[in-house]
Each structure stands twice: as C-alpha cells, then as structure tokens.
Give the backbone structure.
Amino acid sequence: MSQAKSPFFFSIAKWISLAVATVALLGAVIALLYTLSSFGSGSFNTPRFGDEEVQKQVSLSLSEDDVQAQQEKLDISNKYGQRILSIVTKHGLRGEQKYGGGFGKITRGNKTDEMVEVLQKGIPKERRDDFINGWEKFLDEGMAYMTKNGRVAENTADKISDLYFAHFGEALQKVKSEENEAKTSRLPAIGAAIALSLLFVVAMVVPVLVGIERNTRAVAYGNVPVTPAPRPAPVVAAPVAAAVPPAPQTVCPKCAAPIAAGDTFCGECGAQLG
C-alpha cells in the first residue's frame, strides 16, 4: 500500500498534534505579552466636570453622599470621640494645626473635631484603631522624652503629634506601594504558570499521538506483527505403580505349623501348600 493512501486516522492524529502545539505557543505568547504589559504605567486621564456623565453622577449621588459622610462622621465621633478628647486634654493639644502625611490642613478650631475629620478623610477604616492607639503611645513616649531632657515648650505636644501623623501617612503609602508591587510581581508568575501548563499538556499528548502514528503506519503498510499461537502443553501420563509380589508363606494356612520356602506339603498335617 502506498504512502499516499495513509489511513484517515493518521491524518487526524497529525492535525491534532499541530493544533495542540499551536494552542500552547499562542498561550505562551499571550502570557508573555500580558506580563510585559504590566510593567508599563497605566493610562491616566484627569477627570473633567464638563463631561455629561460626571454631571449626571453628581446630580444623582451628591445628596446621598452627603448623608453617608455625615453618618460616617457621627459613627467615628461616637467610637473615638471620648478617647480623642482624653488625649487632647492630657497633652494640651491645640486646634488649627497642619498635619503631615497627606492629611491636609483642617481648621475647625476644635481639636476633637479635627481628629474625627482626620480619621474620616485620611485613615482607612481598618487602620483607625491602630492610628489612635499609636498616636496616644507616641505622644506619651515623646512627651516623656522631652520632659526628661527639659525641652518642653507650649507647642511641643503639637509638634510630636504632627510628627506622628507624618510617619503614619508614610507607613500607609508604603503599604499601598508594596501591595501594588505584589500585584505586579504576580503577573509574570501567572504567565509562567499558563505557559508551563500548556507545555505539560503538549508533553503528555505528543507521546500518545506518536504512538497513534506508529500504529497507524503499521496498519497502513501491513507491518503489524502476528503473535504466534501458544503451543499446547504436553500431556504427561501419570506413573503406574509397579505390582508388588505377594509375601511368601511362612506358616501352614491349615495348622499354622512353620514351613520352609519351597515346601509343597505341610510336614505336620500334610496339607497342600501354594
């Protein structure tokens, strides 16, 4: 049979192998492009209020946002108000202070209200307990240090407080940067996982396809080895036991007198033997 008349299955096996290899290559290329794209800076467009969609969103959500903001401020005041007041009173903190760490300047004239606004605008909800606890401890330690060194002035507590805000803001920014870096660093790993998974699939499928091709060729060209039928096992006859001769008589069967080998008659009673 000529090669031009290869079976249909052989052709299918070759196309499947080609398709799997193509998919694996495309997957690896896509994963690589995706990984490389994550290294570039994202597009940034400054929002414009003139956009119709922005105006519509403001019209629909402004009053609702105001209500939510007021409710959030009330919740913060109820939870942290007394704690803030005790810290402010203990260290004689004043209002109208400029805060570091990206919190901006709040000039309400009331230190407790200022701190509530700082918590609302500058501190994530999950970090507010840490902020208050750290602020109190930072002030206690700072004032103790300054008192020990005799360098306490009227605004010392305010300066220590401002220093804490600056460091806390930097810590928040650092955590945010680390989270962004972690997300970016995961992209190459994801791409590599996809590429390796596709490579694994190819590695598992190719041997199967090669076996199909080999068997298909053997069938097409009549080269299928014929396994000879097994020979029947020879029948072995069971051994026949040899005849055992009877034991010679030593006494007369009639009178039980002793007799010798070869005697024909008993010497006592005359009975015929044998």
User: Anything to note?
Assistant: Residues 1-5, 97-109 have pLDDT under 50 and may be disordered. Strands lie at 98-99, 104-105. The chain is about 60% helix and 0% strand.
